[in-house]
Amino acid sequence: MKKILLALSFAAFFAACDGSSSVSPLSDTGSLSSAGVQNNSSNSSAKGDGNDVKTEMSSESRSSSSLAEDVARQCKAETEDNCEYGKVTDDRDGRTYKTVKIGTRVWMAENLNYSSDSIKSECYGYQATNCEKYGRYYLWHTAINRPESECGHGDTCSLPQGNIQGICMKGWHLPSKTEWETLFETVGGKSIAGKVLKSQSEWYDDKNGVDAFGFSGLPGGRLQDNSYFDNRNFMGEFWSSTEYLGSFTSSTEYKNGSAYVMILHYNGENAAVTRELKYFGLNVRCVKD
Predict the structure, then answer these.
(1) Is 2 helix (H, G, I), strand (E, B) or coil?
(2) Nearest residue to 289 via CA among 150, 213, 204, 175
(3) Contacts of 206 (CB under 8 A, 6+ apart)
């Protein structure tokens, strides 16, 4: 079942590409699994029937000219960096994070690395030194700062309207599905968002991004089934605050078991908003209120 879920997750990402058949990337252990890809030409609704896994994307039906006024100017190149950076200090532990303004929004330019005795999180490979680079990995109910008994796997979570602070520091919040999609539009559209949001190093086979907006999206991989890590250097996944109300697969075992995530992949210039199981551990980027 784990192999099936891994294949489905990669299929969801590659559906954002041209719909041609693709092979999923190597994991950290060097294994290779394949996933068939179907061309999903239309956006699926936020409530699915569980019979397939479709990639959730913002519409790009507007022409380039009408979208131009929403697109931010690239601020970083190989030889210069003119991005509007800042800093934010988390009063809970005194840790300071780099921030960057993209369009009208201010984002964290590194992954959240907050932990406490009451919050379950992990470092990649269970090695503390990895937290300094990749931040920490949180289950979805932890990312939204809700008890597992209320918002864990299989539970429908009743979240309030508006910003969800979640595990983010005061004045910041966990981005919603819509906010991730808006970020794609701001940097020029989902078809190039991966290239311009990915960091300039760390990606498998030297398929690095250009980091044109200072976001520095790292390929931190994920914590699968709350038990083992994989896909470092191949993909980066970041939680949203938006729950998916449907089945991850056709099995009723996975009903109400997923939430939306933003995903970057080494083998593509695009980025995607898709679904991931709530009991996977993923990275968190916060956005300013």
Answers:
(1) helix
(2) 175
(3) none
Q: Which amino acid is at 232?
A: R
Interval 6-39: pLDDT, tens:
444 444 444 444 333 333 332 332 322 222 222 3
Q: 108 in a domain, yes or no?
A: yes
Would 191 be classed as within a structural domain?
yes
Q: CB of 220 within 8 A of CB of 236?
A: yes
Q: How many domains does the chain have?
A: 1
CB 114 within 8 A of CB 93: yes
Write out pLDDT tens, residues 54-105: 333 333 333 333 333 468 999 999 889 999 999 999 999 999 999 999 999 9
Q: What is the pTM of this model?
A: 0.77
DSSP state of 81: B
Q: How far apart are CA 11 and CA 19, in angstroms?
A: 10
Structural domain containing residue 130: 62-288
Question: Minimal CA–CA distance to 16: which of 180, 135, 158, 228?
Answer: 180
